């Protein structure tokens, strides 16, 4: 990416998550469920109450499609909540081991292939033989959320690239996208629990980057964001090489 880039970082030097406050984290997730799942459920209920027992006309079909889209949003949000809760379960039993990056990147790309194809987004992986010291479950959760967000916020004809490069004694795991980018005033808030980047164009629960930050803090890794509005973003996770 060229042009002026704005960056923020978060990591173990700025960790705000106390390992003993797991219940607070879970309570936050439940609060988000009540807050963000209510509207899609209301859409489903109103659309299908109106529908009745059968679809009889084009106008009926349009109402049904509204409900179907809401169901899709709900399914995605629930997936993110379940994924976040699974990450929480790892808190008391974090084990650090050597994690090969290429198989990890390929799994994440494969998981998002259908989603990317439906959006008209090209998703690619840069081959690597590098490894990092991390927790495989937490690191996969971090990368899964970053890639999912990258695809979500990238328009048709855009691309998402997953790769890594050496950064001193660390390895920098990168997720590039050619999406909408992030405005400078939004950067300080993107890791907040309820924050969404562009609510006028993209639906979804503001939880993915919140989970990323918490997992990064737990592992003692760092995450960096560089972005330019209209050109895209690069999310980078720094972990020790093995």
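^ structure tokens above, recovered residues below v
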């Amino acid at each position: 990416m060229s042009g002026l880039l704005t960056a923020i970082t978060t990591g173990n030097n700025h960790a705000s998550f106390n390992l003993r406050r797991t219940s607070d984290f879970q309570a936050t997730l439940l609060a988000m469920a009540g807050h963000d799942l209510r509207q899609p459920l209301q859409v489903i209920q109103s659309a299908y109450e109106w529908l009745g027992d059968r679809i009889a006309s084009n106008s009926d079909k349009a109402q049904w499609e509204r409900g179907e889209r809401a169901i899709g949003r709900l399914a995605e949000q629930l997936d993110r909540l379940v994924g976040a809760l699974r990450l929480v379960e790892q808190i008391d039993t974090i084990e650090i081991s050597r994690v090969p990056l290429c198989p990890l990147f390929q799994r994440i790309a494969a998981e998002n292939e259908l989603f990317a194809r439906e959006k008209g987004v090209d998703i690619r992986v840069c081959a690597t033989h590098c490894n990092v010291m991390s927790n495989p479950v937490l690191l996969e959760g971090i990368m899964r959320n970053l890639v999912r967000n990258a695809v979500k916020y990238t328009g048709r004809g855009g691309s998402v690239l997953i790769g890594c490069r050496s950064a001193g004694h660390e390895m920098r795991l990168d997720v590039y996208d050619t999406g909408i980018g992030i405005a400078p005033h939004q950067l300080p808030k993107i890791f907040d629990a309820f924050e969404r980047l562009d609510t006028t164009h993209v639906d979804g629960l503001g939880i993915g980057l919140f989970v990323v930050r918490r997992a990064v803090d737990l592992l003692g890794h760092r995450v960096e964001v560089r972005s330019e509005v209209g050109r895209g973003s690069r999310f980078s996770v720094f972990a020790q090489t093995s």
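Residues 6-240 form a domain with the Heat Shock Protein 90 fold (CATH 3.30.565.10).
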